[in-house]
Amino acid sequence: MNEPVREPILAVQGVCKDYVVRRNLWGRPSQVLHAVRNVSLAMRAGTTLALVGESGSGKTTLGRCIAGLARPTAGSIRLAGADVPRLSGAALMRFRRTVQTIFQDPYSSLNPRRTVGDAIMDGMVIHRLYDAAERRDRMIALLQRVGLQPDHARRYPHQFSGGQRQRIAIARALALSPHFIVADEAVSALDVSIKGQVLELLAQLQAEEGLSYLFISHDLGVVRHFADRVAIMAGGELLEEGPCEQIFQAPQHDYTRALIAAVPRPDPARRRLRRG
Amino acid sequence: MTHPLSPLLVVRNLVTTFDTPRGRVKAVDGVDLTLGHGEVVCLVGESGSGKSATGFSIMRLIDPPGSVRADVLQFDGKNLLAASEAELDRLRGREMAMIFQEPMTALNPGRTAGNQIAEILRLHEGLGKRAAWARAVELMDRVGIREPQRRAHAYPHELSGGMRQRVMIAIACALSPRLIIADEPTTALDVTVQAQVLQLLFDIQAETGSAVLFITHDFGVVAEIADRVVVMRAGKIVEEGDVRRVFAEPREPYTRALLDAVPDVDAPAGRSPAWAARAAPQPLSGSGASSHE
Q1: Residue-range definition of the domain harbouring residue A252
Q2: Which of these, A149, A172, B257, B290, has the minimum number of CB atoms within 10 Å of its CB?
Q3: What does the DSSP 8-state code read for residue B285?
Q4: First and final C-alpha spacing in chain B
Q5: CA distance A72 to chain B (A)
């Protein structure tokens, strides 16, 4: 590639994450789950890296390590200039502002007892950004940015549909003008019509504000149309990583080929299921 | 039993409503549906379209505050609306079975997989304890569970999602029912497991000759399995027809919009996806409700 050489926004080096499943009588680990095994990755600012794998592949655990929500057992993670596993105090607060996470189920990540307006302004209050009037203005602007109405601010999460709640979660993530978003199955639960709208919004924000996305997903159809690069994980290991089209057109790994082949095609003429 | 050429299931003007504190919600609003013997029909739609409520209504599994009305709700010549709870219990399991999206909630967490399969055989076939257990192990083997002898003693939480769904299929197919209603049975599974479970479902369908009403939001799955497809929106049927016809030339703009919105894993992509930029259908708000999605 003849891309200009730039400092990557994310550099993951030899990351491992173990969970102790069981300890023996003396409190020593007797059974350990290797959720992530020796993964190295890098990504440029303003791009989207898709992390693809099936359940148990370690993609979510790796995403949590990168977002600073879990501490790797070994290895280093540099994100937006920060040494993520060693962050604490004021540096950690700064990091939490620049790196935001959107989860799959906005119903469990939004507080049901707080209005949508308050939920979006929470981060600004915690980080002591802007005065009260500016926060309100920003909150209203964000609601409109994600296609909702200003008067939605007074409502509660349960008064919205799943697609609207996911857009609220996005507005909340954007409130602190992050540089990097970890989106963990952020559109997986959405209906296909809404999915397109939310992805379009994310693409637009990337084009306008240079946001970088770590897009964790099992949906290969969406990944092919949304990611710049794709990393395939299985059993905690990184099997292959490369430009999106290369992964789809010339997968190197048998597992990647099997994964792509297993996606049901929306075309009855290409039916592969054997009917008796 | 009715004549084999007469349809297995006839539904006319099905209306399912739920009384909520904020008024009555019509989840299903005048649905007509006919299923032939051994036919595979996909009921497809977005959340809130009423597709799950339609399946639950046919099984007569809607409880108050929900209520089901229909001009005709006939299964194998029997009027399901007039059937007593005892008659329905006899029909469910033996004649018509349901497979749910989340087997973890549909299976009893406190009983072993083998026990739950054996139970239906004891209840409906009158098999003794030992014979029912032996048949349950056979069925587990049939649905592709390795080491069925050992796994029969496993509790649902000790099985993977794919295994649990295989156990559900074993229960549903244990008595070779004539109608299987499957509500998003593979939605929670990984794609490679989904492909295996779909294949299994249709191998068994071929053996038993059951008709299948398959409820899904995934057009990829529809293309893979359906003879006929029925598209629902806001409690109503917007389009139905032979699966090849509907995919090749959808008559309704809504169907076309839904099909266009499906990202094609085989199509090379540009940066801003064309399928996302295309005007996607706006969901209707305030109508339709589906508590099972």
Answers
A1: 10-261
A2: A149
A3: P
A4: 34
A5: 26
**Structural element, H or E, at residue B258:** helix B253-261
CATH code for the domain in which residue A152 is found: 3.40.50.300
Task: Please answer yes or no on whether A264 and B221 come within 8 Å at the CB atom.
Answer: yes
CATH topology of domain B9-104+179-277: Rossmann fold (3.40.50)
Contact assessment for residue B201 and residue B231, using Cβ atoms and an 8 Å cutoff: no
Smallest Cα distance from A91 to chain B, Å:
34
Token match 């004021």: residue?
Answer: A90
Nearest CB among A200, A245, A269 relative to B268 is that of A245
Q: Two tokens at A80?
A: 């937006």
First-to-final CA distance of chain A: 49
> Residue A149: inside a domain, yes or no?
yes
Q: Give ipTM to 2 decimals.
A: 0.78
**What does the alpha-carbon distance between residue A225 and residue A202 come to, in Å, rounded to a whole number?**
12
Domain segments of chain B as ranges: 9-104+179-277
Judge: B206–A276 Cβ closer than 8 Å, yes or no: yes
Option in B47, B198, B265 nearest A273 (CB): B198
Q: Is residue A275 part of a domain?
A: no
Chain B touched by A155 (CB under 8 Å): no
- DSSP assigned state of A69: S
Q: Which residue of B has its CA nearest to A54?
A: B190
Nearest CA to B173 among B218, B141, B145, B143? B143
A126-183 tens-digit pLDDT: 999 999 999 999 999 999 888 889 999 999 988 887 778 888 998 999 999 999 999 9
As for how many domains chain A has, the answer is 1
Which residues in A lie closer than 8 A to residue B247 (C-beta atoms)?
266-268
pLDDT band of residue B270 (cuts 50, 70, 90) is low
Strands B96-99 and B179-183: parallel
Interface A-B, measured as beta-carbon pairs within 8 A, has a size of 149
Residues A187, B276 contacting (CB under 8 angstroms):
no
Question: Does residue A93 form part of some domain?
Answer: yes
Following CA atoms A161, A167, A172, A177 in sequence, which dihedral angle do they give, to the nearest 10 degrees?
180
Pick the residue of A54, A246, A249, A263 with the most B CBs within 10 A to test the interface with B by mutation: A263
- Residues of chain A with Cβ-Cβ distance to B269 below 8 Å are 224-226, 244-245
CB burial of A81-112 (b: ≥16 within 10 Å; e: otherwise) equals ebebbebeeeeeeebbbbbbbbbbbbbebbee
Residues of B whose CB is below 8 A from A200: 272-273, 276-277
Read off the pLDDT of residues A67-114 as tens digits, 9 standing for 90 and up: 999 999 999 999 999 999 999 999 999 999 999 999 877 667 788 899
Nearest CA in chain A to B246: A268
Determine, yes or no, domain membership for A272. Answer: no
CA distance to A1, A7, A8, A227, A266, per residue, from A4 (Å): 9, 10, 11, 20, 39
